[in-house]
Design goal:
Blueprint lengths: L3 E6 L3 H12 L4 E4 L16 E2 L10 H20 L3 E2 L3 E5 L5 H13 L6 E4 H7 L7 E5 L3 E3 L1 H14 L3 E3 L3 E8 L2 E7 L5 E11 L5 H5 L11 E10 L8 E4 L9 E4 L5 E4 L3 E3 L11 H9 L10 E11 L11 E3 L1 H4 L4 E5 L5 H19 L1
Parallel strand pairs: 1-2, 1-12, 2-9, 5-14, 12-20
Antiparallel strand pairs: 3-8, 4-8, 5-7, 6-7, 10-11, 11-12, 13-16, 13-17, 13-18, 15-16, 19-20
Helix pairs in contact: 1-5, 1-9, 2-9
Amino acid sequence: MHDIETLVIGAGVIGLAIGRALAMRGRDVMVLERHGLIGSETSARNSEVIHAGIYYRPGSLKAKLCLPGKNQLYAFCAENGIAHKRLGKLIVASNDTQIPELERLHRQAQDTGLDDLVILDRRKLADLEPKLDCVGALWSPSTGIIDSHGYMLALQGSLEAHGGQVVLNADVFRIERVHHGYAVQVRTPDSDETPLTCRELIVSAGHSAPSLMAEIEGANAPKTYLAKGNYFKLQGKAPFSHLIYPAPEPGGLGVHLTLDLQRQARFGPDVEWVDDIDYDVDAGRGDRFYNAIRSYWPGLPDESLIPDYCGIRPKIAGPGEPAADFRIEGPEAHGLEGLVALYGIESPGLTSSLAIGDEVVERLDAGA
């Protein structure tokens, strides 16, 4: 006998979506979170964009999960009253040499099943966003924005309504294999240590997942890298109605403009490789933003950007390496019955979260 049938480590947006999917299928589920509130690390520090599924290689997990995840997410928001809006996105070419990249992205998106993108010339782009100075753009009408905190609260509510539970201030610091299952050692804020046993274990711990899995024989946990993304807020109102992204750059999607649900504009994230997690924004990095932004919005006023916030991407590919796919590894990958570990769940993780929950359930069932 185990303390609980299924444990999920991590109550970020992915862990909550997985816990909900498991609870909806009748499993006895507990989600453990080391902090005093849900979604306080990577899930709370992103651009809150619902991605269309443009950038991902056909056949990859990102491509497989983003498109259905997007549709599931829009439906979930509508059904649960989560604030969101389909603003649409423009991926812009600031010069003619970037047009082939837009055309490549268009073809790639079509190969993954995304068929609503449109290439715009300078004139049509000017009709949509007259303040841009670009030679063309790729228009994505199904890109949107979401209240990510409201979404996570709704996931938690749905999980609990189906009999699952979320336990806060429960820091898992060791995992061991035991007879027909797993034991996790949990530390509370009072430094008490409690063992919990389960038949099934899902490690959705973001930055901590590889270190938790490192001592489990056969798990083959990847090396991780920390890529900090800084955001700067625009003082005053932006003259734009849509999300604006430059052509992609190595390590990220460039310094883009996003709008929140109050139409406040922010720019970012950049890519800053770091050795340790800290959430301070270096105001000096804003100097680099001006040139990047003025490549597509030359009218950006001087001294108009102020530091906003930052996030740390849980990457499993380092500087100069090709972007890595999601790694979702169940018994089919490591041979460990009842165990699924998730690594490198960065963008489009939030968009894909409901589809990721379904994927984890499928892998557990297939390995049972």
